[in-house]
Each structure stands twice: as structure tokens, then as C-alpha cells.
Amino acid sequence: MTTDPRALPGADPHTGNREIDPVTGYETTGHDWGGIRELNTPFPRIALIALALTFAWSVLAWILLPAWPLGRDYTRGLLGLDQGEVAMDRLQAIETDRAAWLTRFDAPDFAALATDSALMAQAMPAARRLFEDNCAACHGRDGEGGPGFPRLADASWLWDGTPEEIAITIGHGINADDPDTRVAEVPAFDWMDRADRHSLAEFVASLPAGEADWNSPAAALFAENCAACHGERGEGGLGIGAPSLTDRATIYGQDAQTVYQTLTRGRRGVMPAWAVRLSEAEINLLALYVSRLSEMTGEQGQ
What we know:
The protein has helices at about 45-65, 85-100, 110-115, 115-135, 135-140, 165-170, 195-205, 215-225, 225-230, 255-265, 280-290, 295, and strands at about 30-35, 35-40, 70, 75. With about 300 residues, the protein is mostly helical. Strands 1-2 form a two-stranded antiparallel ribbon. It has a two-stranded antiparallel ribbon with strand order 3-4. The longest helix is centred in the N-terminal third of the chain and has 20 residues, at about 45-65. The radius of gyration is 35 Å and the shape is elongated.
């Protein structure tokens, strides 16, 4: 069976001869796009070469490198490379390099360590990496905090801002599944009259701006229900996990509506205990770093 040449792409329907582009010398395909004729150009040789090399390399990679999954295992390849082993070797090298100075944090004298400039030059970059890996997701990369998570880069602390106390918080957590965890909770004041709750919420919301009327009925409500934990003027810092209500770094927000929700439903935030993940030396190193965040960010005041 023969093909009629007149039916071939680019052929003249009467003579069967292919049309040749006078400029390039290539045959045309017979397609005409608004006066522009499509050329029947050959596939670029460089592309064919690249395709062949890519195919050859893929076959070679399958043979030499880990490539094919086999259920829970995989083919190792003739070179026997294992990225997990490479990563562990590099981690071991890092651990060996820092072991010489990290042991000083096993049972540290924080005051003495903080004055050792050579040690701090080695330790603080490692401490920042620990912070970014374990704390920044909640507290922010620079300890700026966020909704539901305390700010660490200022002078207001739920318990205490010393490295020793911070280490306890990091190690045992807050309201965590740890026998020595710190405990802090705002009870629900849903028993209180709704009008009183609204009045108290407005009063607490006015504290950061210093606009609170301490001779008002709302101030009396504050004294009766809040001052025992948050301080007579809402300054916090009593070492019992009650935050300051007078600074900018409020945990859940301090607009009247949010405070009303807190009074109605209560709050019980949780911080996990990191002793199950970090070594004692790493916790102490991290505690020293966190205690210095206010200095590093220049926000030592309230």
C-alpha cells in the first residue's frame, strides 16, 4: 500500500510536491497561521544529546546511588551512600567540637559564665540555634511572643527572669505532664455578674495606658478578685506565674473584649517540659540565652 504524496503534510494537493521555504530551505508543514507558514524543522541535535545524556545519567545513578524503595528499605547502590549516616557523622563532629565548653553548663555558675567573653562567643550562637529550633515557633524568633505565648524579650516574667528560674521553667514546663511542672491558671469568673465582668474588663484594659481610675467600683472589683495574684496595681512579678497587666506584652491581648473572655472562661496555657528532649547542659545554656534577650533587643524596661 502506497501513500499518495499529495496527502503528505506540506505537499501541494495537486502535484504532491512539498513546499520549500525560500529563506531557510526547510520544507513547510502546510500549516498557515495568518500568513505565517510553519516550517518542518528537525528536532535540535543538542536537545537530543542532552536527552540521551540525562537518560544515561539516570541509569548510572540507579546503579551507583540509593534509588529504589523496597517497602521499608531501599536499594543502597554500589557506592553505598547513606545520607542518614552522613548527617549523623556531621552531628557527631559538631557534638565533639562543642563538648569542651558545653560541659561547663552541666552545673553552672551563671554569673561567672556570663562574664567569660570567650565562652559567650562560642556558646551564644549555639544557644540561639537551640532557641530557634525549640522555642521560636511559639515565642517568636527574637522572643517577641504572640497571642497565647509570653514575650521573653523584656523585663516582665511570670516567675522570675534569672537563668536559674528560667531553667526550671524550661526543664519542667508549665501545666505540663511533669511531676515538677510549674502550675498557673486564671480561673473562670463566670459566677460574677455580667455587668461587673464588663466593668472589670474595661478597667484591666485601661491599665497599660495608665488610665485606670483606682477610686472606681471597678478598682474595688480588681482589688477583691485580681490583686492577690497580679499585684495591687496589676504589676505582676510575684513569682507565681501571674503576668503583669500594666505593660505592652500581654499574653492573650488586653482589649476589653479579650479580657472579658478571659474572665468568663479562664486561661490555662501549657508549655511542654523540655527535659525529655534537651540535656541539662542545653537547658542551662538556653536559660542563660533567654535571660539575656532583653539586653540583646534593648527592651529591658516594662
